[in-house]
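As the work plan foresaw, our protein records have gained a structure token line. A representative record is set out beneath this paragraph:
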Amino acid sequence: MKLVYDVSDKPKFSKTIVFAFQQMIAIMAATLLVPMLVTTYGLKADPSAALFGAGIGTLVYIFFTKKKSPVFLGSSFTFLGAYASSIALNFGYIGIILGVLFAGLVYVVIGVIIKAVGSGWVNKLMPAVIIGPIVALIGLSLSGTATDWMANNGGETYSLVTILVGAVTFFAIVIASVKGSENIKLIPFIVGIGVGYVFALILTLIGMATNFEALQILSFEPFKAAFAPFTVSSIVKMPDFFFLKAIQEKGWQTLSGTDIISIIGIYVPIGIVELAQHVADHKNLGNIINKDLIKDPGLDNTLLGDGIGSIVGSIFGGAANTTYGESIGCVAITGNASVITIMVASLGCMILSFFTPFVALINSIPKCVMGGACVALYGFIAVSGLQMLRKVDLNNSKNLFIVSGILVTGIGGLTLQIGHNNLTGGPLITFTALAVALIFGIVTNLIVNNGKLVADSSETDKK
């Protein structure tokens, strides 16, 4: 696609601040939600610390990728099951830190291997006919979150009002992106989320004045928690960093060798499964910015950046990090691929994590507003995957079988659960629907091409 700002471009300082703030808003709701969910599992996690962890993790990623890959790392939802298991087994804060460490080391080890043998096999193993529908699946698999947030505002009660607010947010983004001035087209999410927030606030005030509960969709609880009573911490407060909690808990004193093996068994498979999404995200981003990120900065460096960035992020925030589709979607829609923007957004997250009013404001954004924004973000991810299929001959039955297998297993939610974990009662290893779809695609590609890896699906013979 045609970019307004390329990877190495440096927008004016004032514009960079605004663009960075937009990236922060795009990734922030989901990043803050993960520690909130972890807290419900019985272990207190601070959203502010997770925000700091995401920021510093992204800076680590940018360092390893030599400022060539404009993507933000945010809290990963894939690890939620692992968090729940380790918390249930009383491994404490140190258990989560160690778990993410082992999962991150999976990336590091694979990255080192790729550095030695090269990454040329990746394009042959996952050509456009495979990676295109896989990327589309990433967007489609996230779509349920967007629509659920719109319909239920993050709760369990269906509401036409919250759907309306989400729709207003989405349409405001569309208008800003398509009809706005040159500058407005670069910040459609700030405009859209701002319009949605104000609309939600107006409805909430009307609902409070009329005692009509269905209209009260914006919660003021984050502000009450921050300012009542008003103290110094109402303005500035150091996040409750995860490693400090681990030190206070002294959990390592009670961990046995068996416990560590259990932690490895819980977390390492997730690192392996996440590899599929890592490759797909970087293929997708490379397609958007017209660069092959698998070659430059190289899959080895993106894996090292993601793995070590995730480890560092977890030490501070508790949550493992991952490449964020919201960030990639933001790049696609705005045409702003400047890595400087991502760097400033990372620093912004780290700095603002100390400012209570900012965190309270972000926490107060209704989920239906973010749902409306995510309709655009996740939709662009899905569409960018479909765009990869433009050069694929879908009149060729070989390609049709590959794409069909991927889409149906992925959208249908087929998972592979292997073994039984006696400690947790669940499966020993779970391959997500995305990983299963990738496996189906790769195996089908090998079958239809007589066991040969074909770099470009267009090279296959027509039938």
